[in-house]
Specification:
231 residues; mainly alpha; 3-stranded mixed β-sheet; 76% helix
Length: 231
Amino acid sequence: MIGYYIIAGLIFLASSWVSSRLKSKFKKYSNVYLQNGMSGAEIATKMLHDNNITDVKVISTSGMLTDHYNPANKTVNLSEGVYSQRNAAAAAVAAHECGHAVQHATAYSWLTLRSKIVPVVGIASKLSNFVIMGGLILSATGSLLGNTIFLIGIILFAATTLFAFITLPVEYDASKRALAWLERTDMLNSAEHDAAKDALKWAARTYVVAAIGSLATLLYFISIFLGNRRD
């Protein structure tokens, strides 16, 4: 298990560094105030309107960086620091979340696929670690059943890894749509647009780190399983 702890440690360090940089970037760009004076909520409402989306509501949610689009009730949920603020960071996040709403409205294939496997991934994420640990413990005692349980755990974990990689094109496409709309409508000036682009770049990297970390862990578990089979 030493290898697992090394991988977990490296993933934790990478995730912490990216998260720290993201928070630093958002703090920096929260001080880049928009010349148009629009709040995150107003920008979100305008982007939805420009894309002929009339059945999605823009609402405020508590917390920091808790912004998300909920396809179930068709709401763009903006954190308190985004909903009412009038800066480049708020504009970037608001437009990004509306990018997901546009994906939903246009039946973007990757978003549709991700939505379909959410229930399965929800179950897999809750069970995989317990099943994997159970399989490893049983394998250590010499039980033949242990390897089978371990394999089931790996399959469950693989589902979460697949989800992490499916999320990447969804997030990058939402940012692409957001930045294209912000530029097309001259919503931001050059400096504000560059700030929004950089903020979204660092936000996307959190998903990249998560996906790579999940894949590295999956490959490690597979290597243990194959090693057990040879023993």
